[in-house]
Amino acid sequence: MITLRSYTKEDAKQLAKIANEEGITKNLMNIFPYPYSLTDAINFIEFAIANPKRIYAIQYNNELVGGVGIHPQDDIFCKNAELGYWVGKQFWGKGIGSEAVKQIIPIAFEKFDITRLFGRPFHNNIASQKVLEKNGFELEATLSKTIFKNGEFFDELIYGLRVEEK
To answer: How far apart are CA 35 and CA 119, in angstroms?
Structure first.
């Protein structure tokens, strides 16, 4: 069973364990460090606890397995929020990411005054693209070589999911 819940301080050791995987961080922004230490986990959990409407732990069979977050934009992009998610490598291939995104979509549109939720996977992250597509996101744009990670350029794909204007 997959559920979304708030992070707790007790999650720190498990978070540090599952997040400390280069296979995860290679497809995330640099703010998600590798190696991922217990101190990183504690700092992140403090941030998540301070932002309970935005950041959720993904739980699978009563075990912390990843995270999902809603990142509202501002200024002229104020009707948009970016979606971010990851699942520990040992839990890949179980549909956990797809189910977590399915569960976060109504939360995003209910808790925030937005009309569009978007995700920006790297062009080579096929699994993440499939997660978005399974949940009704449409490919809106491909931006060539806009991502620079670990000394390499990657294309940025922008997927969006829209609701009628609020």
So the answer is: 24
User: Residues with Cβ < 8 Å from 116, sequence gap 6 or more?
Assistant: 79, 80, 81, 160, 161, 162, 163
User: How many whole angstroms separate alpha carbon 40 and alpha carbon 46?
Assistant: 10
Contacts of 164 (CB under 8 A, 6+ apart): 115
Sorted by sequence, the CB contacts under 8 Å of residue 10 that are 6+ apart come out as none
User: Given the structure tokens 């990851």, which residue do they identify?
Assistant: 86
DSSP string, 52-76: TTTEEEEEETTEEEEEEEEEE--GG
Q: Per residue of the chain (166 residues), give pLDDT as tens.
A: 999 999 999 999 999 999 999 999 999 999 999 999 999 999 999 999 998 899 999 999 999 999 999 999 999 999 999 999 999 999 999 999 999 999 999 999 999 999 999 999 999 999 999 999 999 999 999 999 999 999 999 999 999 999 976 5
CB 5 within 8 A of CB 62: no
